[in-house]
Amino acid sequence: MKNISFRNDILPLKNELFRLALRITLNREEAEDVVQETMIKVWNRRDDWGRLDSIEAFCLTVCRNLAVDKTRQHERQNLTLDAADHETADVSYASNPEEQTVQRDRIELVRRLINSLPEKQRSIMQLRDIEGKSYKEIAAALSISEEQVKVNIFRARQVIKQRYIGIQEYGL
Length: 172
Prior knowledge:
- The chain is mostly helical.
- Helix content is 70%, strand content 0%.
- It has 8 helices and no strands.
- Helix 2 packs antiparallel against helix 6 and helix 3 crosses helix 4 (55-76).
């Protein structure tokens, strides 16, 4: 039986869960609600923690499912989702204000391109490229095979690359 502590093992996942929820819902308030609901659901299942292979994968799965449900609920109600209020990226390494602005614009373009991907690809890209999760961890969190993770991440990166080049070269 594993000794899992809510304070030491689950609460530190809060920011990671928020970023995943934000990537899915594209709305800061919705993402905050999803994280809160995730924490409640995980706490209510505390008797099962010792039987889990990975508490982190369990938390990510609960978070993703709640975020997807919330998004589907809004789609059924024909509500439009607000664009996410992303934190301003650190572009202080650029040497002058013009370079900083160009870099900020590029980062924002990539964020918009990622947000335009299908939900599964957005989630996988968030977990792999931003959170640094392994294919195995992502497969466990999303209940898919590692091969599906690899295929989805490859396709997502290809779409982002093609769209980015198209916009940069042709303004499309």
